[in-house]
Every structure is written in structure tokens, then in C-alpha cells.
Sequence to fold (192 residues):
Amino acid sequence: MKKILLFTGDFAEDYETMVPFQMLSLLGFEVHAVCPGKKAGERVITAIHDFEGHQTYSEKPGHYFTLNYDFDQVDPADYAGLVIAGGRAPEYIRLNERVLEITRHFFEADKPVAAICHGPQVLNAAGVLKGRKVTAYPAVGPDLAAAGAEYVEIPLDKALTDGNLVTAPAWPAHPDWIGQFAALLGVKITMD
Fold:
């Protein structure tokens, strides 16, 4: 069984943590959800971001999500791909040097990486975006462009693949984002 590493943390976006975890598990992957400074069995609190016609998203309390693997035990060589949940967590998990080292491993090994919403902030901090086409929540776009990425603004329900990297602006893109990531992982979904 192939393993996927999922970075999340306190106030990560609820759907952007739970849905990839569940969908990738459904596809047969063993998904290890981790957060710096936390162990398996500990929880993170998520936030629900909604689009209600304001100038930006609204934020509401989400659910508790139980981590299933110890961050300190992660060996990136064991994983076929990396998922980075969006929301508020990327703001602070990107300050953890081990998070950045792990992220760089996936790019150096050309393994599939999926980042959504504010998740590309981790990619930016890891220094892996120069020359890449990438999307994110629009407020993150200027930071990505300043890092040397080609920021591409796309509809909230779409995703963008550039080589081994799949990015999306927000959770409405889950079908497209997870579908493109699954394709990079070699998953073929057919209906009889």
C-alpha cells in the first residue's frame, strides 16, 4: 500500500484536511496526517472557511481532527506523495525547519505534491516555487509571485498541475484537485 503524507495543524481548513484524508484513504492509500509538535492520537482543531459574498472568506470553528502518525517519526522517503492542507496552519507550520526539509524532499525526488488554499505558503518557505506555475487562495498570490513563481488565478473550483505539483485556490476545487493529484499518483478511476 502506498503512503501519503498530509501536513495539517490547528486551524487548518476543515474540508482541506478531512476530505483529502478521506478520499485518498478511499482510493487505497495509507494517509499519515501529521502536525509539527504533535503525536498520533493528538488532535488539531480545524476552521471552516466559507464564501458568503464578503471581500474574503469567513472563518468559523471547525471539527477536531485526530492525527494518526507522529510528526517526529516521518521519513519522507517512505511516502509516494505529499498533501498540504490550507487554512491558517500553513502560516505557522512553515516556520518549522523539518516541515521545509520534508517538503524539499518531495521536489528533489520529483514525487507528487498537492497544496491548496494557503498551503503554498509552505512551498514558498521551502524555496521550491521559482519558475513553477502555481495557484492558491488569491490573497497568497502576490507572495508566490514574489518568490519567483508564475501565479495563475483560476476559478475556486479548479486546480492546476505543473509537473509534480497540483495546486488549487480553495476547497470547492476538491474534485479537480484530488483528481489531478490521484492521476499523478498513478490512480486510474474507471466506471463499468
In short: Helices lie at 14-26, 89-93, 97-108, 120-126, 141-146, 174-184. The chain has a mean pLDDT of 96.
